[in-house]
Protein: Thioredoxin-like protein 1
Organism: Tolypocladium capitatum
Amino acid sequence: MSKAPVVISSKEQFASILKSSKIVVADFFADWCGPCQAVAPIYETLSVSLSRPNAVTFVKINSDTNLDLAEEYSITALPTFLLFRDGKVTQKVQGANLNELKEVVQKLASEVESLGESSDGSAGDGPALWKGAEIPRGYSDITDQVEIRGCELLNADEDAGPVKVLFDGSKPGALNNAKGKDSAKDSAKDWVQSGADDQLLLFIPFQSSIKLHTLQLTSLPEGGQDGVSRPQVIHLYINRPQNLDFGEADDTEPTQAVTLTSKDWNADGTTNISLRYVKFQVTTTLIVYVQKGSDGADMVRLDRVRLIGEAGAKREMGKLQKVAGDE
């Protein structure tokens, strides 16, 4: 599973991580540093989204308790973010400059992408690299731009997983389970499904204004209960300040309406929904309304949601922008 940053307690521990992980992202911080506290949630979100065992590791280094490391890497401002590849620093960002940090993350994403399927048999188990379907040429996975804490899912079955599992970079448990649907019921609940009927309303805010090209959905009802289906009719709405209710969604003209058929889903239970790109050039929030499931089932299920496109300019984020401006 994906994980939070590793807290470094010694120079030896850090050296070991540099040797064992091809890519390392290090956050040098201090407990008294206001900008450090402000960017910490974003850094943790990136770690959860992109970490991959023994390949991509995020760490946090307290410069007060690790003076030797702070001196070795010439840390003169906090926070400072260092990107390592094969144990060597490839990029450095000083201060709570979110635009520069975004560039580092985009570089990291391309580095991760360059690792490809080199391990083939094991890479598919890596949480950062699992792909349900190919990413359209010229675009990248920007799911790390999702503000996880602001997401909301209406009509969710409380016996399934929380909304955050939709954006996990790992391979869905239903695909990892080789024994089929019966034993999948005993695996971790890393999917969501509807409760009262076959409708879901998912509100997704972004950390930046993005250009959204493709919505990638994975749905594996065969790994869950009987009477659960994949989405069939989906309405999309952008730039709403908060989630709609079901009545509003039915009465509001969508930015785009999509009807899926069984042929739209690949062998991994994933569909790439091509968006009318001109309408999604400036997207700060996205609402995914599953209006109807397929096959007349009572419930609808989602295992993963990925966003494909380009990350744009940072939207105003209150405290974070003020901190950056104070630098």
Q: What stands out?
A: Residues 131-314 form a domain with the Jelly Rolls fold (CATH 2.60.120.470). Residues 98-115 form the longest helix (18 residues). The radius of gyration is 20 Å.
